[in-house]
Amino acid sequence: MLEAHKLPHLTGCNSEILSMKPDWLAVIRWDASGLCPVIAQDWQSGAILMQAFVNSEALQLAVTENRAIYWSRSKQRIWRKGEESGHVQVLHSVYLDCDGDSLIFEVEQLGGIACHTGRATCYFQKLQADGSWQICSEVLKAPTEIYTNPKG
Fold first, then answer.
1. Quick one: pLDDT at residue 149?
2. 42-64 pLDDT, tens digit each
């Protein structure tokens, strides 16, 4: 069970210390693999930064540690955003959608880079009328400068 906890900026909600109900995780509709998708959104601008997944352990840790913590499907382990890159996401609030099967993390993106490609957001390709994808965001830092073994 989580102890009483305070998220720094609960927008539109009472930001006093929360008395966490012991069954708060039971409300979430986890998929067959025990995962729930989560969108990371900039807590000030509202920009969508990335999408990932959490399991119940990752979500509990995220709330407890006040940072974005996900479940890495490729590595099959808990993934603390920024553990390799230093681009930590400070957790400001957590929202559950109307169906209980999707989350939003409102985060403060430290270093301004959320994507492993070195961009501010993972959503940098925009569909054009001709069916092509246009890159609409610049690389702020080359992945080779961020990671020891960068992904493609």
1. 72
2. 999 999 999 999 999 999 999 99
**Pairwise CA distance, residues 32 & 81, whole Å:** 24
CA distances from 49 to 2, 42, 66 (A): 27, 7, 17
Q: What Cα–Cα distance (Å) separates residue 135 from each residue in 52, 100, 111?
A: 21, 33, 21
Class of domain 34-146: alpha beta
Residue 113, C-beta contacts closer than 8 angstroms, at least 6 positions apart: 85, 87, 119, 120, 140, 141, 146
Token pair for 51? 């999408």
What's the N-to-C CA distance of the chain in angstroms? 39
CA distance 57 to 54: 8
- b/e burial code for range 35-52 (CB count within 10 A of at least 16 → b): bbebbbbbbeeeeebbeb
pTM, rounded to two decimals: 0.84
Distance separating alpha carbons of residues 58 and 67, to the nearest angstrom: 10
In this structure, what are the phi and psi dihedrals at residue 122, rounded to the nearest 5 degrees?
Answer: -80, -15
Task: Report domain extents, the chain.
Answer: 34-146
